[in-house]
């Protein structure tokens, strides 16, 4: 499997590690039902059969976390972007 | 760039690791372990990208590029290793160049000394790409590979940073210090592979 | 495999005359390079260019194997990797390799081949008695037998079955061969060098594309070397050779013979396995036996050809029964006549081409049996010059000849049976496009009535892949050539320039003869087909087996495959499975298209595990990391332990010491008494800078890091988001915006990844820059009452080490005689201690300096085991307590958790189950009887309770012999924690057969007030 890292280019999957499906935004720890929200955040995933928004870490490359939209049935990668976006260096 | 990596004083002769590439000549390859250079990690601070570029232009006449490429001149090279992150390499001398860069770029970038973090190997010869192909899952052939590209990847489960310095072709391979011996073990096997290929 | 033998060819023995079936002329063999080889002890002759199979046939050796289950005599069936029968063992001792297909093996000088699965000999095999029991051994018999008595299974049935099962026997010695690997990123990968592949290669090669042309055979050219067809005015084999010569001259073309493309993977990645050899005569010692190719091509042309399939009739497995195309291959490519009197049994036009080839080889063709009632005139014409009896609408219904075919029985259209005396029967049941590679990623083939086989749908264009020629069901030579050319032109993007000469356009009509009552049942006159009719030759699966499986309720081909083992052998059923599928379709009363095909998966042919492992075997399975002082430690007789990839000194053996406990105890005592030095370079070190560095650290540690003063160090704990402890370490602050944090050795990579996640994914708005500096700094701990003295000798001139300037938990950056250095006053051991960090290139020399400077205080190098003794005595948690199932509260850090800020893991750490008071929490443990010893993992049970999980109170996590206490001690987790101090419980360890009475004590066994730290 190969992933098109936005910084490094097309690379073998061995350079990456997968965190799996990206959870929704990290809940506000101050909110009333924080514990329930965090349980969902940490443990529950949609696990779709089809396009899946995943987080991958390019550990043996640019060490960037990537958002990878990957189809879990066909294994086709539909899009890759830097998780940190273009914000990282203030551009 | 050529001067920085080809100075005669730079090769470490009598390295205890040299036996791993004893057969390099048979493969038409030249392998040298470079003596330690001055290497710093430079990571831009948030919102300071433009100022950083200006400062480097001003102090070192260096055009900073935020991509996986190698830019620089004969006495300082910047390798893009990630967004907003570079390795700055310059000749080693007895002063503290890290303080110099840190002073020049104070507030614009975070500087970290990495001079002992990497060992650099220099490999040249017609079979260089064939050698690297025995471990690197990245295409170094032209025209797909642009000569100024920097490749941060892995060979035999060991992280490497590779860039090309001339058309020989010559490649510099940066390997984390602690992995040196394991990397050399891979290299000696790859050299044998090149030799066997050439026999056919 | 490497064999040591001389380079000079053996003369005299290997002449045409000594090989009874060798034709005097023709073939693609090198008659000027004779070879000799050994087969079951017999010395035989052959030629360079032979396969082992052709060499055996040349020497009139027909009986080459015994079948898997019934031990029936078998012969060579095919001329390729689809071979089900002729499996041989090659090589001896550690080089022994079983189950080699004689048809795929390139013969080399001095090869020693042996038959398998037969005892005492291939000619007389006791195993054949199994045949007599065959009614009791149908497919799946082992699911129904060997049930009773159940005790017999392990002691009697299993050993016998294990002995009888399998084919060849592997060597149990380590593989002496070595394997190369290479990545290739070509513009075009062409799989298969037959007419389609060669045409494509020429066109794309001339256009300058970077091409890799592969063929699993050791000779390129595919079926062009096996047929007598014409391309232009050239014999097709000649044409192939001239193409190959041109391709060999192109620097942009890599020609890879003996290279099977065994799998297709996501990301357009293909795996090729190349058998490396210096050639049949070269016995020069080769380093590598095989090479693994990892190919990422921009485009692929699959010109993988097609495989001929068998026919199912009674007795269809005897030696001498062969695929018709194989007969032609042996004659045309290898100049071998596979028999003396032949018949042809076919249901398709293609089989008829065998007549003239046999005739040209001097083999008498006595009959041509075609199951179709009408056959095109142009096909009939192929038999015009032969005296063979032509029988249409006829089928073979039985054969005779135990060790080799001698007679066939044929039922004609009327049902009358005639017999023919033959020693060779060429069968052709049709052709199957070789589409396995195209289906490896789940693509489903469709049934094509026209060719009576499965192929890929033409509008199901697999990514960047074009399937051409016979692999696309385009069987004629002209179609293959044009198909390859067209595909290449699509790749180059320019109109094809290669002009193809005129070719023969052969007929490929077929009316399949499936395993229907027509073929194996009674004929119209009540004559019955006799003998076992095999669908899968390698696994001995007959049509009655498939019928039985169907009757037992297995209707789906995938189920029948697994129940009968049809198609599961090393040939993957390539010559028989489609026949089986037809039988299933007929039983299900469905068309073939609905029944479908069985999913194929990589690898396409068997691959050595060694080839895939390559360099990564034994201790090279993964890389090893060494610290700067590794050599110095080696010289001090360090015994190393693997911590992840790192080698760390576990203890140092002093002269006279005979076991590890001696050394470890000595080292621990030395630290407590005077001073020791330990290499702690392997711990993770992360440089954290930026205007938000302090804020960032506050969000990942449970305690307040932002409040740490410059030049101070603070111990910290990080949680996972689920509230469990992830790692512990220290944060040293060197500047307002500059921290260096430490992690445990094992978690360095994981923490780095976690911190990047927190920054890049959770809080990209923070201005923080991080990088690992584990490699940059060598670091040594100097611990013990005399540590200050040793430290002063080393750095005293450069750093003020007074308690006022450098108190407990201080840190500083300084220049150590020109080199950048960092000093820390921290302690893991509980003694006064320092750590000194220098750039790794100076590490070893600093380590040696310390040892030399510290001589007057007997400075002792100590390893991880002594480090463990010291930290356990001091009640410091480490890896065995940070197992991912313990919380900060469990480990006694509950109070460290800040209530004033959010941090990773805070919310879920507050879950009821994680704060309930009865959770096992950290305590110390020592034996009630002083000399008793226990091990970590022992479970705490109340005295007098029964050893069941419900009674379990906790467990012992770390254990050491404590010189300070004078007994074995441990740290553990027990329900109720410190409230049980003074209680006696059992440390129950059934794994090591121990049950020890222990006392729960404070986890701090030495200096609970910390006086030594600040001394």
CATH superfamily of the largest domain in chain B: Probable tRNA modification gtpase trme, domain 1
First and last CA, distance of chain B? 36 Å
Number of separate strands of chain C: 51
Order of helices and strands of chain B: HEEHEEEHEEHEEEH
For the largest interface in this structure, which chains are involved and how many residues does each contribute? B-C, 50 and 52 residues
What share of the residues of chain C does DSSP label as strand, in percent? 25-35%
User: How is the largest sheet of chain C built, in terms of strand order?
Assistant: 42-43-44-41-35-45
Count of spatially separate domains of chain B: 2
Number of strands of chain B: 10
| Largest sheet entry of chain C | 6 strands, mixed
Number of helices of chain B: 5
Oligomer: heterotrimer
CATH architecture annotation of the largest domain in chain C: 3-Layer(bba) Sandwich
CATH architecture of the largest domain in chain B: 2-Layer Sandwich
What is the CATH C-level name of the largest domain in chain C? Alpha Beta
Q: Name the CATH superfamily assignment of the largest domain in chain C.
A: FAD/NAD(P)-binding domain
Distance between the termini of chain C: 68 Å
> Helix/strand/pairing class of chain B, anyone?
alpha+beta
User: Kindly state the mean pLDDT of chain B as a whole number?
Assistant: 90
Notes on the structure:
The complex is a heterotrimer of chains A (about 90), B (about 200) and C (about 1000). Chain A is about 10% helix and about 35% strand. With about 90 residues, chain A is mainly β. The model of chain A is unreliable at about 85-90 (pLDDT under 50). Chain B has about 200 residues and is an alpha+beta fold. Helix content of chain B is about 25%, strand content about 30%. Chain B contains 5 helices and 10 strands; from the N terminus they run αββαβββαββαβββα. Chain B has helices at about 1-5, 50-60, 95-105, 130, 180-200; strands at about 30-35, 40-45, 70, 75-80, 85-90, 110-115, 120-125, 150-155, 160-165, 170-175. The relative contact order of chain B is 0.20. With about 1000 residues, chain C is of the alpha+beta class. Chain C has a 6-stranded mixed beta sheet with strand order 42-43-44-41-35-45, with helices on both faces. The longest helix of chain C is centred in the middle third of the chain and has 16 residues, at about 475-490. The radius of gyration of chain C is 38 Å and the shape is elongated. The model of chain C is unreliable at about 1-15 (pLDDT under 50). Chains in contact: A-B, A-C, B-C. Chains B and C meet through strand 2, strand 6 and helix 5 of B and strand 8 and strand 16 of C.
């Amino acid at each position: 499997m190969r992933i098109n890292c936005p910084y490094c280019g097309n690379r073998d999957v061995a350079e990456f590690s997968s965190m799996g499906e990206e959870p929704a935004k990290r809940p506000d720890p101050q909110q009333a039902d924080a514990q329930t929200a965090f349980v969902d955040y940490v443990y529950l995933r949609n696990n779709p059969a089809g396009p899946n928004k995943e987080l991958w870490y390019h550990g043996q490359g640019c060490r960037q976390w990537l958002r990878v939209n990957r189809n879990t049935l066909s294994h086709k990668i539909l899009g890759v972007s830097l998780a940190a976006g273009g914000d990282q260096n203030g551009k | 760039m050529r001067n920085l990596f080809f100075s005669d004083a730079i090769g470490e002769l009598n390295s205890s690791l040299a036996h791993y590439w004893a057969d390099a000549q048979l493969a038409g390859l030249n392998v040298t372990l470079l003596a330690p250079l001055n290497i710093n990690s430079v990571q831009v601070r948030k919102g300071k990208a433009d100022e950083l570029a200006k400062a480097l232009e001003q102090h070192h006449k260096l055009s900073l590029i935020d991509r996986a490429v190698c830019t620089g001149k004969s006495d300082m090279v910047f390798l893009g290793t990630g967004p907003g992150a570079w390795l700055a390499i310059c000749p080693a001398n007895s002063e503290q160049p890290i303080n110099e860069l840190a002073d020049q770029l104070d507030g614009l970038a975070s500087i970290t000394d990495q001079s002992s973090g990497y060992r650099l190997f220099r490999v040249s010869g017609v079979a260089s790409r064939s050698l690297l192909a025995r471990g690197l899952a990245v295409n170094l052939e032209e025209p797909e590979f642009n000569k100024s590209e920097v490749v941060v990847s892995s060979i035999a489960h060991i992280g490497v940073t590779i860039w090309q310095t001339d058309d020989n072709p010559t490649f510099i391979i940066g390997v984390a210090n602690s992995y040196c011996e394991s990397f050399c073990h891979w290299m000696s096997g790859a050299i044998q592979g090149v030799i066997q290929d050439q026999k056919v | 495999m490497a064999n040591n033998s001389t380079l000079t060819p053996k003369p005299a023995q290997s002449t045409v005359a000594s090989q009874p079936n060798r034709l005097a002329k023709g073939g693609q063999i090198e008659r000027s390079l004779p070879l000799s080889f050994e087969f079951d002890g017999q010395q035989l002759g052959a030629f360079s260019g032979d396969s082992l199979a052709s060499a055996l046939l040349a020497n009139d050796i027909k009986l080459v194997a015994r079948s898997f289950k019934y031990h029936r005599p078998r012969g060579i069936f095919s001329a390729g990797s689809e071979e089900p029968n002729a499996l041989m063992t090659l090589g001896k001792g550690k080089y022994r390799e079983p189950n080699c297909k004689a048809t795929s093996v390139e013969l080399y000088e001095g090869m020693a081949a042996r038959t398998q699965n037969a005892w005492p000999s291939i000619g007389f095999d006791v195993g054949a008695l199994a045949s007599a029991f065959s009614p009791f051994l149908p497919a799946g018999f082992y699911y129904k037998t060997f049930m009773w008595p159940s005790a017999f299974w392990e002691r009697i049935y299993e050993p016998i079955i294990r002995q009888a099962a399998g084919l060849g026997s592997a060597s149990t010695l380590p593989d002496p061969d070595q394997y190369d690997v290479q990545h290739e990123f070509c513009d075009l990968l062409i799989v298969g060098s037959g007419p389609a592949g060669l045409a494509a290669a020429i066109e794309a090669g001339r256009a300058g594309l970077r091409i890799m042309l592969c063929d699993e055979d050791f000779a390129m050219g595919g079926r062009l070397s096996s047929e007598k067809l014409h391309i232009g005015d050239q014999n097709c084999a000649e044409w192939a050779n001239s193409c190959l010569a041109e391709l060999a001259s192109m620097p942009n073309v890599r020609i890879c013979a003996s290279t099977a493309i065994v799998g297709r993977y996501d990301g357009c990645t293909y795996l090729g396995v190349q058998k490396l050899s210096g050639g049949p005569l070269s016995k020069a010692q080769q380093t590598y036996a095989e090479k693994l190719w990892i190919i990422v091509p921009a485009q692929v042309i699959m010109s993988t050809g097609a495989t001929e399939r068998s026919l199912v009739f009674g007795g269809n497995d005897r030696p001498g029964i062969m695929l018709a195309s194989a007969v032609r291959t042996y004659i045309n490519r290898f100049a071998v006549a596979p028999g003396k009197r032949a018949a042809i049994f076919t249901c398709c036009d293609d089989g008829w081409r065998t007549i003239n080839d046999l005739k040209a080889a001097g083999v008498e063709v006595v009959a041509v049996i075609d199951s179709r009632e009408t056959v095109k005139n142009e096909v009939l014409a192929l038999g015009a010059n032969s005296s063979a009896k032509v029988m249409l609408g006829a089928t073979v219904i039985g054969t005779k000849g135990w060790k080799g075919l001698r007679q066939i029985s044929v039922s004609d259209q009327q049902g009358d049976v005639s017999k023919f005396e033959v020693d060779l029967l060429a069968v052709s049941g049709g052709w199957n496009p070789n589409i396995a590679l195209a289906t490896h990623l789940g693509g489903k083939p469709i049934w094509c009535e026209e060719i009576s086989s499965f192929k890929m749908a033409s509008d199901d264009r697999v990514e960047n892949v074009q399937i051409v020629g016979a692999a696309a069901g385009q069987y004629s030579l002209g179609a293959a050539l044009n198909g390859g050319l067209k595909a290449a032109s699509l790749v180059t993007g320019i109109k094809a320039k290669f002009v193809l000469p005129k070719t023969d356009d052969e007929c490929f009509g077929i009316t399949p003869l499936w395993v229907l009552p027509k073929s194996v049942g009674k004929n119209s006159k009540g004559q019955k087909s006799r003998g076992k009719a095999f669908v899968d030759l390698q696994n001995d699966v007959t049509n009655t087996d498939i019928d039985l499986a169907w009757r037992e309720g297995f209707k789906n081909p995938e189920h029948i495959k697994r129940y009968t083992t049809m198609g599961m052998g090393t040939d993957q059923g390539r010559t028989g499975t489609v026949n089986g599928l037809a039988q299933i379709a007929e039983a299900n009363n469905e068309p073939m298209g609905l029944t479908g095909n069985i999913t194929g998966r990589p690898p396409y042919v068997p691959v050595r595990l060694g080839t895939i492992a390559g360099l990564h075997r034994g201790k090279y399975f993964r890389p090893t990391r060494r610290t700067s002082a590794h050599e110095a430690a080696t010289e001090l007789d360090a015994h190393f332990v693997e911590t992840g990839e790192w080698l760390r000194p576990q203890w140092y053996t002093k002269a006279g010491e005979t076991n590890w406990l001696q050394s470890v105890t000595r080292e621990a005592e030395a630290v407590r008494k005077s001073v020791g030095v330990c290499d702690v370079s392997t711990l993770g070190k992360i440089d954290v800078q930026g205007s938000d560095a302090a804020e960032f650290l506050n969000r990942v540690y449970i305690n307040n890091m932002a409040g740490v003063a410059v030049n101070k160090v603070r111990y910290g704990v990080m949680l996972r988001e689920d509230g469990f402890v992830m790692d512990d370490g220290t944060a040293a602050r060197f500047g307002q915006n500059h921290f260096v944090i430490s992690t445990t050795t094992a978690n360095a990579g994981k923490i780095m990844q976690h911190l990047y996640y927190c920054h890049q994914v959770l809080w990209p708005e923070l201005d923080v820059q991080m990088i690992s500096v584990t490699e940059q700094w060598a670091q040594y701990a100097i611990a013990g009452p005399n540590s200050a003295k040793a430290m002063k000798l080393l750095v005293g001139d450069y750093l003020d080490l007074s308690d006022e300037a450098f108190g407990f938990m201080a840190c500083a950056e300084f220049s150590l005689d020109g080199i950048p250095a960092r000093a820390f006053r921290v302690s893991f051991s509980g003694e006064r201690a320092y750590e000194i960090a220098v750039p790794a290139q100076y590490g070893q020399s600093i380590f040696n300096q310390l040892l030399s400077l510290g001589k007057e205080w007997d400075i002792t190098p100590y390893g991880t085991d002594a480090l463990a003794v010291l930290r356990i005595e001091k009640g410091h948690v480490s890896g065995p307590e940070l197992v991912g199932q313990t919380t900060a509260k469990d480990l006694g850090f509950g109070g460290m958790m800040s209530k004033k800020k959010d941090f990773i893991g805070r919310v879920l750490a507050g879950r009821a189950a994680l704060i309930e008071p009865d959770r096992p929490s950290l305590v110390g443990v020592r034996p009630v009887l002083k000399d008793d010893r226990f091990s970590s993992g022992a479970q705490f049970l109340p005295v007098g309770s029964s050893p069941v999980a419900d009674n379990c109170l906790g467990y012992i996590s770390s254990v050491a012999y404590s010189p300070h206490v004078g007994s074995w001690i441990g740290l553990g987790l027990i329900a109720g924690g410190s409230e049980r101090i003074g209680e006696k419980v059992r440390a129950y360890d059934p794994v090591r057969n121990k049950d020890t009475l222990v006392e729960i004590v404070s986890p701090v066994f030495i200096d609970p007030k910390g006086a030594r730290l600040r001394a």
